[in-house]
Sequence to fold (1084 residues):
Amino acid sequence: MISTLLKTATAALLLGAACLGAIQPAEAGAPKDGKKYKIYLSLSYSGNAWQSEAANIVKALAATPPYNDLVELKEVISGADPQAQISAYESMIDSGADGIVSFPISATALNRTIKRGCEQGVLFFMYDATVTENCAYNVSYLSSGFGENSAQALVNALNGKGKIFLSRGVPGNSVDQRHTDGAKHIFAKYPGIEVVSEYYSFWDDRTTQQETAKALAAHPDVQGIWAQAGEYGAIQALLDKGGNLVPLTGENSNGFRLALADPAMQAKGLTGVSAGSPPAQSGYAFKLMMEILTGKRELKPTNIEYPLPWVPADKVKVCSGDTFENGCNVFPKDRVPSSFVTEVLNPVLLPEVNIDSALNGTPVKGATIQPLPAEIVKAANEPGINCARCEAAKDQYKLTKVQSTVK
Amino acid sequence: MSDIATTSAAALPAARSGPAPRHRLWRLTQGAGLILGLYVLLYALYAYQQPRALDAYAIAALMNNTAPLALAAAGQTLVVLSRGFDLSIAGVISLCNVVLAVYPLEGPGGALVSMLLCLAIGGAVGAVNGWLVAYLRLQSIAATLATMIICQGIALVILNAPGGYVSEWIADELTGRLWGAVPVSGLAVAAVVGLWLLVRRTDYGVALYAIGADEPAAALSGVNVRRTRFLTFVMAGMLYGLAGLMLSAQTATGNPNSGAPLLLLSFAAVALGGTSLSGGRGGLFASVMGAATLTLLQKVLFSSGVSSFYTGLFQGVVLIVAVVFSGLLTRIGERK
Amino acid sequence: MTVMNENPTSQARFQQSGDTRRSARISAETVSTLAVAILCVALLVGARFISPSLGSWSQVETVLVLGSFLVVLSFGQGLVILTGGLDLSLPAVATLGGILATNWVGASDPGAWYLLPLVLLVCGCVGFLSAAGIVWLKVPPFIMTLAMSIIVSSLLLGYTKGTPRGAAPDAAVALMKGHLLGLPAPVLFLVAFVLLGWLFQSRSIYGRYLYAIGTNVEAARIAGAPVTAMRILPYVISAVSAGFAGLMLVGYSSGATLRMGDSYLLPSIAAVVIGGSSILGGRGTFLGTVGGAILLTTLGTIISAIGLEFGLRTIIEGAIVLTALLLLREELFQKLGSLWR
Fold:
């Protein structure tokens, strides 16, 4: 498998060189025997807990035996500018990358560069955010229905009636749009649900808190909040007002999950579901890529679905150790910051890592890389998100985690 | 234009507030020579680290990456020369980009119409800016902040999430190479620079430098300050429109926030090119080279393997050192 | 530096020259400050048409608390702009303040009484470095502070390895969440801060020096102003107040993030300019800036209550900013003034 890949790569390189009318320097196509795989980790921006956990998991896995002898991992952070990431991809391809694990800043802007990379034999694995170029692998929970399921859970909690806020992500972002479309599809079915304010919180606790405070000034009588990442800020804004809490659905921050399980918060009226984007996707993507590179798995480029984490208030369980054991899914307050995203761990897909790996990028002592389950789940088509010029499924917004309980 | 023409001779002295250029060397330091030198140096370093840097493909890819920022910085230069700031740059580029992605026009004819559309959008926004700043006398930074916000809003109304497809002709041809060697994006930038060299010698060009250097003096010597300033914003807007076109060609898709990253970078490119942010001194070509240097710097930092957390540190230091160095050389030159 | 060995005659001469220039300007500035305040009130009252809960005391409280960050940040920005500069490093320095506060101090560290000032000192040093580059290396303020901002952000990214840790210091939480005399602590703090800022900028000798330098450096030098020190001072104050805003943000949201300052850059400049200051320096008051900051925050709370899609809301926001700018033009006041007479 490696040799065929290398041959393809060399052939593509020579072909490319011939097309350009110039001979490549000899080292670029040299055989890799005894050399390490050159893997790049390309982030668009860094600076929030989610992004750094996702990156740390990949670093920890790359340092876990036997990958520590097989992989040379380099991290590149290119900022929130698609052009900078295009430039970074170009550089990676030119320096002979074997694979690129990446959080892409745009679903479409990078396509041309990715295509060129594929032609040179580079494997592209996108995690969480996706691209529509079909020679790249997308590993993402996006098709798993976060928006519609969490919206239905909120509707159930409100019994189909009430004024709600939508705390969205980044304006003009396709992930935010997909979640919100799903949620609105559900809300539209219930005439009793009234969306009184819809604001952008940039997937950030602090912004969520400020924007929620603004919305509360106009609508102090809100009865429920549907939030994307940053949900813990919405709770803080409600607490700042000194009033009651309301049913709230959001993503996977440690602070939110602890609050859901806190009897004092429940007494004030907090209930809800913690679901949404798991940083563990990066680790899954990296391991899949390594299995392909080392010839342990045959897989054509495709869209792979990562299962949607789904933790209702009554299923929150505090962990005593450093991993998810015995079905626990949140860590004590003094162990991690409230913005820590708990779903960075996955006992089935990523048994090698613990929270120290997520916080520091360090491997767990004595751990070795375990094989992934053979089966993958193919993701449904999401036009403009993971495929170009394609049709969405008829039941795109079907509920998978929760059913309507409203009479 | 006519009344500017009659007064150009009078305006001339005001355009040269420093000592007259006697030396060839002095002119080199004053103009784009320095930044050009820095660019060549960086490119040599890049080519040394990455042998593929000299491929026709790599050069074209770099040019494609540079073109949007270079054109945006070129427009910004005009406004800065007239002692203003133009924040609408981010709005115009986003707006052009979403228009091209939502209403793609196929074929070379479609590309021409698209280009005219971009020029029209940029020109219209520039005209509003020019009206607000030159005739209603608002501060440029405040007026263009408002127009930027409005343009961003319009872009979001046209396209509320990234998507759409820029016409294939634009995406392929504008990023391709003529005769397998000459990058089209490079030609586009060169054409703008060439045009500027012509415009610079016209009465308008002279008037622009004059009002930047000393507005009251320029007005006294008969320059129509308002009209010059108005025209400057219009032309700058049209250049942002072109930047939006090149950006769309490169990303081949629409994004309502696509212009935002270019806002501060355009100022950095202008300053790196040695154009004084207090007006009257500098040039468009130098800013283009400044933009090219900023883009190249990313490549060099990548291939020298600087830890990704600290690339910003190097970018910042290079920016300061380059500006200090060029300032030093300029002062040495002026002493001669 | 030269502040110390200032001789009394030159200082007296300077004050005189400063005063004559100011007296002519005072009325125009007072009018524009008042106009901003009136516009704020008009917006708040007008907001009742959008939602009946708006225009209430509760909304005013929200605006004042959320606006306090912007007021503190734009105080520094205003001083820098007054001397003809611009500070793009505010967001990065605010983040620096927040990150250091959570990392070094944490929730209930007994050492907070000296660690928190130390955090502000570090921020001040960043400001001093910017100023040093601007004054001695002659780097344009725009570039120097932009580069500084990139450098500080990158160092913070490396220092935290991407994940900020720690909790907000108790003092910061008390400042932002506490109540005193039935009023929220941040509102009381805001009043005190505005008073001090106004005294500094409009009533102290240092403020007058800054106006003089912004109007004409050479003239200020001749009049005996300690020019070098007074060109450095605004950047240091700006960085310290940005660091303080970082502490406030941390107290408000009980934690730091690496991008927490980002959204304040353009608003800090806009608040100063809407408040009637000239971007070229030498003109403007802190009270005007405060009005600008509160106006922008009020606008934000009202806009978010309008039930329109985000793009249209953005257009309306831009249009209101533009209208405010057109209404607040000095020329308009002069014209009105001449009608009055």
Chain A has two domains: 36-141+279-360, 145-275.
